[in-house]
Amino acid sequence: MHLDFAFLDSGTGGLPYMGYLKSACPEASCLYLADTKNFPYGEKTPEQVIAATKEAVQLVLSRFSPTAFVLACNTMSVTSLETLRQDFLGIHFIGTVPAIKVAAAKTRNNTIGLLATEATVRHPYTQGLIQSFASSCRVVSRGDGKLIRFIEQHLLSQDKSLYLQAARPAVDFFLDQNVDTIVLGCTHFLHIATEIQQLAGEAVQVVDSREGVIRQALRIRSLQNPASGSSDGGFSPSHKGFFVTELSSPEMSRYYQDLCAQFSIPWGGLLQ
Predict the structure, then answer these.
(1) Cut 0.85: pTM above it
(2) Annotated catalytic, 73?
(3) Pick the catalytic residue: 25, 30, 137, 186?
(4) Which of the following is catalytic: 30, 73, 137, 260?
(5) Three-state DSSP class for 212?
């Protein structure tokens, strides 16, 4: 079954990316797969991340034929992107990597903060981005798996004060280091980007990769489907929007269904 994009993440971090794409191109058909069986990727070895990502891709391909995969996870992207492009020839993969280049162009005092997973912070790909685009800057990194887990578990909360409280240690860490630009190097952080910006204050810029990722995705869609403007639009009745690879309990099923309702995404259930 054809669709435009399959979004992949180990959890719900990439949902804002799919939302941004749908806002820019409402007629695009999208599927989202949260690899809940292997969450979180940021605490796994590179070999484990690559194996889990390949399995997720194969799961999608067993039932769908997307124009492109959007790796809506920085850890997945910096670790697996090259391998996926080699192993799945002819399939487009769009990665999400820390917006180091954007931050280097925006910083005024040449001090950048990178908020990401431990795996993304450590990965040579990330270090290469820093050397290529921010060699004249001081980059202060913080791997914050605790905050990522909090976001994954509290997306349905309407109490924004909880988000502020959870994000404060990370923001205070960067403010103590005199950063003036913070890179959100994990897609989960986009869920609380407003709170991070509020805590950081007007003197600090908070940046992420969304614009470049969505621009590349739509470019590939237009090249592969010149008549894309005639698409049937949105989530067609023949497929669902949000799938997971594992449901640990009936409560988790209800949680994801409520989450889908909040984000206006059809619930697909388990993809096996």
Answers:
(1) yes
(2) yes
(3) 186
(4) 73
(5) helix
